[in-house]
């Protein structure tokens, strides 16, 4: 027997969670189908299928019988998705049904006026013709395991109306139902536009260097190592590294960063970014199908395909809600005539209206539409959230734990103080840079960078340098041997005055690492180095506290440095934690209340995984996109309170939608039982609620956190 093979289909015509649930139920009943995942937001069906048991053609036939149009979809890894060109509504299958049912309504009512003696027959026949496509879908759904579909409720109501002589009402109900389906499709399309807008950011062509000169090629033909020429005003065709040229680049389409970023030789650039002024030569580092935009799109699609806890609850709720509604409608029809001698026709009419009001579409769509809009809104602001579960949990977070290096701080130590004990500062810094010229140590790099920033003439070292790990680096310069080492190393080699020792202690109290520059056995000066705070770290922590969220810092750094950084930011600090200790601390807090861990996505991977929600820092890097539950593409701490604000806005939107859906149904149920609601008003109650819920969810696309 052949092993199951992965199948990916685009399924056009899905516009709500009920559609997805119907397809999922039908496909799960097919022999050999497993791991079925349906997303109405993306119009996709993904599954594993043993084609010895069920051929792919039979799978597609099953989907078509339910009223949807399946087509093969390329694997995500093969190419960047292509935004679909929306068809005019009248050319879609649902649009054609609107035209057909509208024509039948016009013909039926027209002939009714011309031939009043046959009015009942004319409208009844027209109604049965109109309802036939929906009844056929209802039967197919019932045979495929969904007997209580929306089409079932509407078909029973329309056919029932015909049998009690309400042909006009039946015609109107079918027409309004068809119109409602088109409106739902249009609204669902608006929700999808949030992701399709990202697809449009990537240029379809690129200008690349070839032996014969500069050629324009398709962007998807780019290979790693190609040199692309990006002119002012052009979009960067794929991720790469600048090899020549300087310019400001607008990265807002990718990271949400509002200010253009300066790029020069060695700078990383992202696909879809806009080159502002100078010409850039960019070495391509990712193919078009694997660039930042493509990965964001795929990750957001996968996030939308995964169901949030509330959505899963609503799905389970709808499984018994619809049959319960049919039972209630049946009781409304039977009890008053049987027990209280009421008129059968009146209560059959009211029972049928109840059926229409009970359609669960608005309820089923209430959560996934809000989640999809929230995920899309986040992606457009550089806040990548990997699923509805993470988006929901973020709104319930009570504590946020931050790593220090690379999270609250920039992750790049800088020389902050240069103190010459003999001679002048520039000479001291140049000699220290000569000793550290070939080092890979972050502190040594900070010294060399400081010397280059001052444009100092760095002397040559003879015979390279010698390092004593954790203590010092020594090199022979023209003036003699020079060492750059720790205060303890310096104290073992030279006598440090009380004043010098006091200055070292004062600098260390500020959270700085101090190195001593020795010329032979004489202390010539001090250089203080510190990994500086991110500009927005303090304001981000303040924003969290304003929302009632506790913040703390977990770091492996020494207590003195940790305390100095924590005091600047305004957080509690727990220092000198080994990775396993940090993991245990996160797990301990998570037992009592939800906690988010914010780290760089590499060293903090265990802690990120243990947290209720792991948030990775990183400006579009592979690690930031593939680690944890959320990633801050802006590489700013302020993204954390923005994530939480987005989550809370989404949760609020979900509950508004649920209240809207159930509230309208409750109101119309009362008016139905009192006889104030007609069948066409009942179908408008469901369709109207569905459209209102969708439009409310779409408001999230405009979300902006203060």
Low-confidence stretches: 76-80
User: Order of strands across the widest beta sheet?
Assistant: 14-26-25-24-15-22-23
* Radius of gyration based on Cα positions: 33 Å
Task: Tell me, rounded to a whole number, the average pLDDT.
Answer: 86
Organism: Asticcacaulis aquaticus
Pfam family, one: Hydrolase
Transmembrane segments: 117-135, 142-164, 170-189, 319-341, 347-365, 654-673, 679-701
Keywords: ATP-binding, Cell membrane, Membrane, Metal-binding, Nucleotide-binding, Phosphoprotein, Translocase, Transmembrane, Transmembrane helix
Walk me through what this model shows.
This protein is α+β, with helices and mostly antiparallel strands and 706 residues long. Helix content is 50%, strand content 19%. It has 24 helices and 26 strands. The strands form six sheets. The chain has a seven-stranded mixed sheet, with helices on both faces. A six-stranded antiparallel sheet has the order 16-21-20-19-18-17, sandwiched between helices. α5 packs antiparallel against α10. It is elongated and about 120 Å long. The model is unreliable at 76-80 (pLDDT under 50).
Task: Briefly summarize what is shown.
The protein contains 24 helices and 26 strands. The chain is an alpha+beta fold and 706 residues long.
List key phrases describing it:
7-stranded mixed sheet; elongated; 26 strands; 706 residues; alpha+beta; 6-stranded antiparallel sheet
